[in-house]
Amino acid sequence: MTHWHIMVVDDEEVMRESLAAWLREDGYNVDTAVSGREAIDKARTYDYAIYFVDLKMPGGIDGIETMMEIRKLHADASIIIVTAYATVDTAITAMKEGAQEYIVKPCNPEEISLLVSRIIKVKNLQRENSILRKKLTKQYSFHDILSKSPKMGKIFELVKDIGGLRSTVLIQGESGTGKELIARAIHFSGDREAKPFVGVSCAALPETLLESELFGHEKGSFTGASSQRKGKFEMADGGTIFLDEIGDISSKLQMDLLRVLQERKFYRVGGSEEIEVDVRVVAATNVDLDRAVREGKFRDDLFYRLNVISINIPPLRERREDIPILAHSFVERLSHELGKKVDGISEGALRILLDHEWPGNVRELENAIERAIVTCKTTMLTDEDVAFLVPVADQGKAAWNVPSNITLEEAERHIITATVQRTHGNIKEAASILGIDRSTLYDRLKKYNVQRE
Amino acid sequence: MYIVALGGIEEDVLTAVEQGLGHTYGFSVKRLSRLAEPLYAYDAQRGQYGSAHVLRQLIAQVPMDAVSMLGITEKDLFIPMLSFVLGQAQLSGPAAVISLARLQQEFYGLPPDRPLAVARAVKEAVHEVGHTVGLTHCADSSCPMSLSNNVRHVDTKGAELCASCIVLVEEKTKHMRAMGATPNGAGTRNL
Hints:
The complex is a heterodimer. Chain A contains 18 helices and 16 strands. Chain A is α/β, with parallel strands linked by helices. The longest helix of chain B has 19 residues, at about 115-130.
């Protein structure tokens, strides 16, 4: 929802800015124009999801004319004509010329919210539909990347902007951050979406096999090459090739790759015919290529060729706000796939998830949720189900500085109070955490006059 | 954080809002001396008060050390496009305002219900101040940062921020805390 852009066109500043501010609070990116002409100019460089256009504007071009010009640029633009004075004639003209809605100000806020969300919903469905139709059963799409993070929002914006270009993209990020999903989003955001997306994991194969995998081979070019075979570059012709773990390739392959990037031409292994392809290269790595270049492990000329557009995916620990939505989404999907009725995450469990460093990022989170669901005995994941994320040696102890001048009894009272509070008065759970039996815990609660709630 | 009454506002609302903001955002909440009713923002044609106008006045009076400043008025607010707004705020800016007019049962011809009106005021205060620290509307309809276009929804949403919004508040206010804005001693509310 938050990545759609809306344009507000009105010559009256208060009207324009207050509506823009109201829409921004809803998370939309809002652009404004003081005249029809300015709006048309802006529409030339950007296709907004919704245009709010005031009917009466001075300067020779009114709302209806503005709408007609915008529709010439973007036939599917959703345009809402706004007026203070409703007449049947103007309403009919507006609708005839293709306005999505005709509204009279002031409007009920509910009406506007419903209108905007209805249009955005249809736009989301249209976009999703067009992607899904081409990918059929494949499960990824731009919107499958769940994120509330502003950093990821900027990446989505960039992906949309570069979708239609042929420039090489280098995606850097720790493992498990979703580099391949971003690569696919780039492919499916542009005009190559109907053409193949071919992925190659460069670290998975030894050098000679990788060479043949990328560029293909001629019959008899090496032992076992019993027939001619097309390489991934040829298969990806017209589309995108995704070179994962590019930091791990040998220096010979680095040179071969540089040639392909420079000339868009190559030879099959053992071949003499030069093959030309139109392929967009998206490369990814979890190693610091900049450093690899400085250390002489990676060719600098290849690095610059790859790094035309650079995307750095932040690790999950730098976008902790995504943990709750990702965790809930994994619970929803995985509980269904695993056939277990788990439909929530307790606050304690969520706190553990939020505090974990996630060196394996989103993939590690997904695996952790799967493991927790498998062992979960109720319909909700509790802190016990995700306790494996807290190293045994560190469970609650690492950050604990023992206060000075404290008696053993005082320490015991603090520990018991904190544990009972943490378990929300659940004595069985508290006793289990403290490693004592329930009757002992009851004795201590009485002794220290600790309330259970 | 600061709150300021724009005209006469009952003590129960001011106290509840003060406590609600302190509890939610973990900053100390101070009360500024009452300002005059926003008569300058009155629109005779609509019989309402322009919230953009009120915000502009508030912005001019924000104290130097303010993370946020929330004005509270009994007057019914509007923006030109909409028939009313329950409040308005600068997104990632310090000033915000809420109107109590439509939060009271009397507005709808119903018998007064003071605790309900106070609870609504706290939720809307948390909502508008959320915008000032940079939060946008939340898709979780039980979170006070979800958009409310009427009191029915204000009543169904909770007073406690959802887990994602809490994390966002922590992130977005980190630098403010580092710059010395006064925490209320309790720290940011945890999950």
